[in-house]
Amino acid sequence: xxxxxxxxxxxxxxxxxxxxxxxxxxxxxxxxxxxxxxxxxxxxxxxxxxxxxxxxxxxxxxxxxxxxxxxxxxxxxxxxxxxxxxxxxxxxxxxxxxxxxxxxxxxxxxxxxxxxxxxxxxxxxxxxxxxxxxxxxxxxxxxxxxxxxxxxxxxxxxxxxxxxxxxxxxxxxxxxxxxxxxxxxxxxxxxxxxxxxxxxxxxxxxxxxxxxxxxxxxxxxxxxxxxxxxxxxxxxxxxxxxxxxxxxxxxxxxxxxxxxxxxxxxxxxxxxxxxxxxxxxxxxxx
Length: 286
Hints:
The chain is mainly beta and 286 residues long. The protein has 2 helices and 20 strands.
């Protein structure tokens, strides 16, 4: 019988989403700037010119030029470098591909990797709207980054990804108060001129354990962890499609044996969701 593997996808739902991404070590919560208002790139239909003269005293509506499309011309890697970590995105879908902790080493002596990448699975900090066609469209879109390389230091730094066409507008941003493990993450999406509720995910896990590491006795697979009114709770992966909603958590995330990635809502959150997703079996799995 084919072995099934499951992952955890953790989502925070906000119309205009602003949250904090906390990696491994706690840090003081900075007083971040307010989230910017969504930018609309909706193409508006204008009234057609009439052959009849305009009556005196009545002004024609002013013509408004449509907002130009925003997209990159090719797929590229975008990096954020600091002494503590190196973060890498692909501008295709503005998707996170790596978050390495420079002060920690894995079994092979390489910087500890926080991002688990599984073919066909969600990636950490993916945008999700609940509309599968729109989500696929965003994952395939070539977002335009504000810079290809951002260097972290003592001063706050920011990286933005923007995309717009005649129907869809999307933006994702990361703000780093200093060179450390704390970053503010936000996203907005509009479709047909209307704001779409957007969620930020963390999944499928934390890190990329080797087969040998997973076979060690006492190995703990990634699991969801959250702070609710009853205290700290841990949730193991469940059946595919099964979701657990959490109202107003203090924080929610995914943890492994030594590391944890937490999403901390700024200014309160209407809720979070933890769900299991079935993955394709590993080659050779039985």
